Structures are given as C-alpha cells and as structure tokens.
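Model the whole thing, not chain by chain.
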Amino acid sequence: MRFWEFCRRNLKETYRDPLALGFLLGFPLLFMLLFGAIFSGDTTPNYPIGVIDNDGTPVSQAFVDEALAEVPVLEVSTYEDAASAMENLKLGNISAYIIIPHGFGEQISRSWQDEEANITLEITYDESDFMATGQIISTISAVTRSFAHIEVPITINTNPIHIETEITYIDFIAPGIIIFGLLIMIPTSARIIVHDKEKGFLSRLLTTPLRPVEFISGYSLCLVVIAIAQIIIFILVGWLLGMDIVGSVGLAFLIFFLTGLCSIGIGMVVASLSKSENQAEPLCWIFAMPLAILSGCWFSVEMLPSYLRNVAYAFPYAHAIDASKAVITRGVGMEVVSNDVLFLAGWTAVIFAIGVILFRRSMRS
Amino acid sequence: MASPKVEPAKVSDGFAIQTLNLTKIFNSLVAVDSIELNIKKGELFALLGPNGAGKTTTINMLCCLLKPTGGTAKIMGYDVLKQPFKVKEIIGVSPQETIISEHLNCQENLNLIGRIHGLKARELRVRSQQLLETMGLSDRAKDQVRKFSGGMKRRLNIMMALIHSPEILFLDEPTLGLDPQARRAIWEYIIQLKGKKTILLTTHYMDEADFLADRIGIMDEGKIVALGTSTELKISILEKHTMIIYAWNLTQKVINEMRGRYEEVEVSDGTMMISDKQLDFKEIVDRLHTYGAIVRSAYIKEPTLEDVFLHVTGKELRE
C-alpha cells in the first residue's frame, strides 16, 4: 500500500512537529473554551412569563397587577387565551404561562376570611429549561401563598411540556462553532500540502511511481485523522460546557465528519492552485471567512436577505450547521437531515473529484 | 560532436537514455534547445555547464517532472511522454536541492521511497543497511534528519535515489555546496557504482566531471556544445602544447637559443614557458642542460575542461 506509506509519513511529519500539533489540537480546544466562557456569563436571570386570567375578578386582577408584577425575576405579560400563550412559549418568548382558573378570586376571598379554600393555578412550562422552571414555579407558589395569606402550599397543577425548539445557549451556538472550527480545516489542509510543494517534496515524490490518486488519498487520510481528533475535542469540550446532544451522537459525528472531509477537499483544491504557503493561506481565508459568516456560524442564516441565503445554501456549511443543530438540540433522526447529509456528501465527492483532476494536471507542467 | 541520430521508434539496445530533439521553452526562454543525447547502459555521463545552462531542466524532463515543449526522450526504451510511470519505476533521482522529510529519521526516509517502489520489508532492510554503511550513516539511522549536517543530508538525498536499486540514476549536482572532504566521500561512492548503473550526473564543477565521468557533454545556453571523453575533449582543442620549466641560470643565451627553435618562449622569474605544436619533454630538458641552464622541475601542461569550455563557448566556466 504505497499511499498508506505516504500517509504515515504525513502523519509523522505532523505529530513530530510540536508547533503544528499544538496548533491542530490546541486550537479547537482553546476555541471552544473561549466561546463557552463568553456565552456562559452569570448575569441575573429574568424570566418572562405569560398570564391568562380566566377568572376576571378584581381579586385575580390584583394578583396579576400587584403580586406577580412585584416579583423582580418575573416579567409578566398577559394573554387573551391559552393558545396564543402556548405559541409564545414555543417561540421561546416566555418560559412559562399561568392560567388563573374561574373561581380563583372567590377561593382567595375565602382564604382571606380564614375559611377553607382550594386555590388552584395552572402552570405550563418548558421542561427542557429546568433551571428556570424550578425557580419560576417556586416563585409563583410563594407569591400566591403570601397573596392568599396562607401558610399551607397551594395546589399548582403543573403542566410540563417538552418544546424541542427551546434550547440552551450553548446548544444553540456549539454547532456553529464546531462547523467554524472545521472550516478552518481548509487552510490547515492547504498548508500541509503546499508546504510539501514549496519544499520540493512533492516534486521529489513525483519522480517515483506514486500515482495522483495515491497522493490525494495519502494526504486526505492523514488530514481525516486530524479532523477526527478535532471533532472529538470539539464534542468533548462542548459536552463539558453543557451542550447535550439530544439526538444520535453518531449522526452528529457523521455530519461533522462529512463537513471536515469537505474542508479537506477544498483545501486540496486550493493547494493545487497555489505555488507557495504565502499564496495558499490568504486564498483559503478569502474563501473561509465569508463562508463562516454566511453559513451561520455565529448567527442564524434566517437573518440574511434571501439572495445571500441562497448563496449560503449553495455551500455545504450552512447545511452542516442546520443538520447538526437539528440533531443536537431537537434530537431529529437521519430521516429529517438526510437532504442536508446528502448535500454534504455530494459536495465532498465533487470537490474530491476536482482535487484529483487538478492534482493530475499540476503533476506535469 | 553530436552523436549519430537514432530513429525514434527503434530503440537501440545499447542505449539507456536517448533524447530526441528534446526541447523546453519557458515563455520565450529556450532552456533546452533540441538536444540529442545517447547514453549507453552502464555509462556515467556528466552534463557540465554553468548555472542556467539547462542541465536541471534536462534532468527534470528525463524523470517526467517537466513536459518537453518539443521532442521526447526514452529511458530504457520507455517514452517519457507516453509511459511516464514505466520510466518512474526504473529511475532513481537525487535532486539538486536536498529534499528529505525533515521530521522522519534516516531509516524512515529510506523506507518511504523504498516502499513506494514496492520493496519488500526484508529487501528494504538489507538494502538500507548496506547503503547506511557505505555512506557512513549507520549510527545515525534512527535520528530525525532535521538535525543532520548539510553533508549528511546530501548523502541521504543520494541514498534515497539508490534504495530501490534503479537501473538509471540521475544525480543533479550531487556535491553542491559540500566541503572537499564530503565531496570526496560522495565521489568515491559514485565511482563504486560505475559500470553497474547508468548514471546521468550534472555538475558545474569541472574536476567532478573530469574525475567521475566516462563521457562529458558540455552544455551552454540549452545546447550541448561539446561531447566526448575528458581526453577527447581536451585533445580536440589542443592546437599547441605548453611546457613549464623552473630552472636556474636561464641566461639570455639560453633564451635566445630556445626562441630560435620553438614558436613561443616566455621567461619570467626563473620560469620558462615553451609552447609549440609538438613538444618533446626530454629533448627540451637536454637542450637546456647543453646551454648551461640547471632544470629544477619541468612539466607539460595539460589542458583542463575549463580551457575546453572557454574554447567552445568563449566564456569562463564560473559560478
């Protein structure tokens, strides 16, 4: 296996160079930790909640306007019906909503007169945000008891629902950061290949019977090992920072892997087109940076005007972010992301084909 | 000067390397200008010329790195244009720049090239052990080569061309930038290979070509301007012989006598230089003694390849 021999050489060249190795593995680590630190700021939480007052008595109004509105961590907005509140909960505009049932005022009045009362509230919340909901429920319970002047716990009919779109911040940003990290495999791949080109090592090997396909597979296998190591670091650090993969880890890995492969292919094409590292590096960044911005590494593609969105979706990275987000935060399976995965795989195949053609062409000048 | 032409289609068995009108033009610069070379099997052929003469470009076309603009070449009968991979299997190349994998050790560098050429593990071990011993690198076999000296790297560069026992060996400036001791060591190794391999060597050191080569092609501005053995080349330009004599008592009488007999006689500081078409060493020494001069030493000056180069191109062969 000639390509394997060549691949081993490439790996040794990489892992025996402390600087190169440090960059390849230390960079993703630092990158994830930095983003994690930025987005896990300990600001005082402020929970938006919704209220539907089905009772409509002066007592219930007082409960909403005075008791609930006074609580500093709650931000209360009122809704006409449960349906619109539910919609806002799903959109993530509110963390929970309370339905004040008919007869709530009457029961409170009884409680005020020291009569036996049956006070009920109905809270619907998003269970995926359990830190928030725990605090919301206990806060509402405390407020209601003090409002009703009772010491015994009131009955709160909780109604947890799991809303897939409601996600923590790290879950939301991690796929974008990981894809950005894998985008950087473009300059990394190009650099490793162009270095050999510039030093004449490629020419040296071109006087041996090594074939273009073997060159490509020897380089890409080495780069694939690097990409896998990076993906593992990304996922591990992400997990340590609180990212949980709701869906299949294997599927998430597959998406990241294909993304890495795609970057390797693009890097090889750039390497075939450039003569020196000084040429390849800027060429890669000119390609990688706008792609990172367009593809939604840092903010949602939905914010882009439609023509830019079309541009973004012509490249594999926006698909990779969509698909990995869906798997990580919503736990969807292959059937949902198959189009994105196919697009990624198609791109990878095409870019590798172009790489082989360009490499073959550059073999004899 | 030019060797007899050989029909492109028929490969004469005796020739290992044949170029047919081989030409390379970069933009408008003619780097190699339709050269015709026929190098026999087992021959050590040197391309001698200044930097930029087109020697490396020629080698690069022969080892399938560069596509000729015109003409072609055959290596053991394989066309470099049509059967590049056949050619690559039977050649070994030691490039002008030292090109080795810096983070690999000596053995690993050899293994890489050996395995690419399909050498089996045992064969590879035996071959590399032999090479490491002859090249004096056995004790450094497991060291990463980035720590090597220039001479050691150079030796490894040549070893990498030899690990798979190629039939044809291209050595592009094998001793470039080495100190005299390291050069000598490499020369001795190349001498050992003579007759066993067909070697095409390029150099701009005339002593190297003189010492190593069976035949020399002098190259200038993309053309082979002179071709032959070292002696043939020197004789070809030899119109006059020159004798240098160190002697005491070189009186005016002696000088006048000699001037009467030989074409050119110059004297300065006890040294007499005699030039003529025919010179007889004994005759001159005897004659000087007869006239009373005391000869301390005398020799007939041999022309050098430098003289040949000057004669053929009108330029000095210098870097």
